[in-house]
Design brief:
Helix content: 25-40%
Number of domains: 2
Largest sheet: 5 strands, antiparallel
Structural class: alpha+beta
Distance between the termini: 28 Å
Order of helices and strands: EHHHEEHEEHH
Radius of gyration: 19 Å
Strand order of the largest sheet: 2-3-1-4-5
Strand content: 15-25%
Number of strands: 5
């Protein structure tokens, strides 16, 4: 059922390439954690965002693409849906993808609030994919983008090949450790899980187009 006076507006944003054999019914089941949380009875019923100017949850059957720019009112319990959502998307994804989840403090007023008041905003980056290699690839690509973007303020892009090479080494080591641990029937050590922690910096804009 709809959540009134919910402490957060929760925005889910991402694009996931799906296997060519995935049909709407399979996608509806995979996204059940989302539309059920919104109090809907089906994906079609729950695909619309809380904001009319956001496209919501869209399935492009021709391009085999899931696109999400969807906001729902909620609380911290929304996090409980995320692990299930990631596992479901892993089963139907064709390649690795990142999904951003932003919690906006619904009661925070940046302009008129009391001085010194901080919002309860939070941010998670989820990674999904058909296998660990695909997930690590998209994690690596995003990290390289972040590192290069930061360092290009001080160095020419052509000077950063060594930095990118070191990032690649770290992910190669992590992947080798994962393969080794799976071969031994043990859980991977230091894999970091499917989602990241708190975001830094100022308040993120609501729309993440």
């Amino acid at each position: 059922m709809p959540r009134y006076n919910a402490p957060f507006e929760i925005h889910v944003h991402g694009q996931v390439a799906l296997r060519t054999d995935v049909r709407f019914e399979q996608l509806q089941e995979a996204l059940k954690p989302l539309w059920k949380y919104a109090g809907a009875r089906s994906l079609s019923d729950g695909a619309n965002s809380s904001y009319e100017d956001e496209p919501g949850i869209k399935f492009d059957a021709q391009e085999h693409l899931l696109q999400m720019c969807w906001t729902v009112a909620g609380d911290y319990d929304f996090r409980q849906t995320l692990d299930e959502l990631c596992m479901n998307l892993n089963d139907i994804a064709d390649s690795g993808a990142a999904v951003e989840v932003t919690f906006y403090d619904a009661d925070f007023d940046e302009e008129d609030g009391p001085p010194g008041t901080e919002s309860r905003d939070d941010f998670l980056m989820l990674f999904v994919g058909p296998n660990p290699a695909a997930i690590m690839q998209v994690q690596r690509d995003l990290l390289v983008q972040d590192v290069v973007s930061l360092m290009e303020r001080h160095f020419d892009g052509a000077e950063l090949s060594g930095v990118v090479s070191e990032v690649d080494k770290l992910f190669t080591q992590r992947f080798d450790a994962l393969v080794s641990s799976l071969a031994l029937g043990k859980p991977p050590s230091g894999s970091g899980g499917n989602h990241g922690g708190h975001g830094g910096g100022g308040r993120k804009p609501r729309h993440l187009h």
